[in-house]
Amino acid sequence: MDIQNAQKEVDDWIKNHGVRYFNELTNMAQLTEEVGEVARIIARRYGEQSEKESDKNKDLGEELADVMFVVLCLANQTGIDLQEAFNKKLDIKTKRDHDRHHNNDKLK
């Protein structure tokens, strides 16, 4: 699925299952909360912190999908075509970073 279709699916879900989009500030707070949940899993599962028993069943993919859902909500409600923005950003990063990363001794 491309990003445009994902945005449409989220919009359809909001229309059919939600009452309306939360306002932008609420969604920003929700995004921060979801990113925090991803960070907690990463820090404990892949970092140096020990993983609590209560966190061992948390699904990283599900938490990343929560982040993506809220990002798509924010894009929809602010009129952003995220597919277009992503394509533009990828092009910028490709031109800017190709040689930089290949010449980075830390990555060798």
Estimated radius of gyration: 17 Å
Number of helices: 4
Major sheet size, sense and barrel closure = none
Integer average pLDDT:
95
Overall shape: it is flat
Helix content bin: over 70%
Secondary structural class: mainly alpha
Uncertain regions: pLDDT < 50 for 5+ in a row?
A: none
| Residues in β-strands, percent | under 5%
| SSE topology string | HHHH
Note the gap between the termini.
34 Å
Give a written overview of the molecule:
By secondary structure, the protein is mainly α. 70% of the residues lie in helices and 0% in strands. The protein is built from four helices and no strands. The chain has helices spanning 3-17, 24-45, 60-77, 82-102. α1 (3-17) packs across α3 (60-77) and α2 runs antiparallel to α3. The longest helix is centred in the first third of the chain and has 22 residues, at 24-45. The radius of gyration is 17 Å and the shape is flat. The model has no long low-confidence stretch (mean pLDDT 95).
Quick summary:
By secondary structure, the protein is mainly α. It has helices at residues 3-17, 24-45, 60-77, 82-102. Helices cover 70% and strands 0% of the residues.
Task: List the main descriptive attributes of the protein structure presented here.
108 residues, mainly alpha, 4 helices, 0% strand
Question: Topology of this protein?
Answer:
Elements lengths: L2 H15 L6 H22 L14 H18 L4 H21 L6
Helix pairs in contact: 1-3, 2-3
